[in-house]
Amino acid sequence: MKFNKGKCRVLHLGRNNPMHHCRLGMDLLESSTVERDLGVLVNDRLTMSQHCALAAKKANGILGCVKKSVASRLREVLLSLYSALVRPHLEYCIQFWSPQFKKDEELLERVQQRAMRMMGELEHLSYEERLRELGLFSLKKRRLRGDLIYAYKYLKGGCQEDGPRLFPVVPSDRTKSNRHKLKHRKFHLNMRRNFLILRLAEPWNRLPREVVESPSLEIFKPQLDAVLCSLL
Asked: What is the enclosing helix (H) or strand (E) of 32?
């Protein structure tokens, strides 16, 4: 396989990286502070603010096109368009680039708030009331829901062969609590807490026993939704 040298860059990671110069054949490769990998922008500090801004910009652009080209303001029409055309940009590969900072969470949430305001029937309601009326979750809750579903798949679903390696469980004989609690791993860098296998431990451990021990994913999802509905 021949590599296109003009498209190759070096992304230096790590606080104490010596920043060596790299070559491909005889050509010296340029250094870069941010690169795109499978549609996700990754910078040299592994922060996802740039990708959050890009995702919000794309989603807002499509939402603007919907607003200009669709005359109807019925919830059934706009909700279908939002779910099919806009929200996928806010959630593509979200397990990897889940926002780390509150400002990024609010940036993404404002896109959904804008979509909800477009529905003429709900103008008098607040954002939270609109979500309840439509049977929707905030984007933050949807990210948490997706993470917990992934944890269930690895621990009790079709991917459970790899579950113990990724999500070590702490044995427990307590009858009333969740007997499948995840082990809290130690980390040296604060950024590590945002990784999927680390950020899942606390919310998974708070789930009731009957939810965690659901016999199938089809039963787990509605039970999980009932728990998330009770959260602020």
From this structure: strand 30-32
Structural domain that includes position 190:
142-229
Query: Which residues, in sequence order, are CB contacts of 53 under 8 Å at separation 6+?
Result: 104, 107
Cα–Cα dist 45/8, whole Å: 19
Cβ pair 154, 161 in contact under 8 A: no
Asked whether 127 and 178 are in contact (CB, 8 A), the reply is no
Alpha carbon distance 99, 203 (integer Å): 17
The predicted model scores a pTM of 0.82
Residue 158 C-alpha from the chain's centroid: 21
pLDDT digits (tens, 9 = 90+) for 191-227: 677 788 788 888 888 898 889 888 899 999 999 999 9
For 171-183, how does the pLDDT look when each residue is reduced to its tens digit (9 = 90+)? Answer: 666 656 676 788 7
Task: Tell me, yes or no, whether 35 and 53 share the same domain.
Answer: no
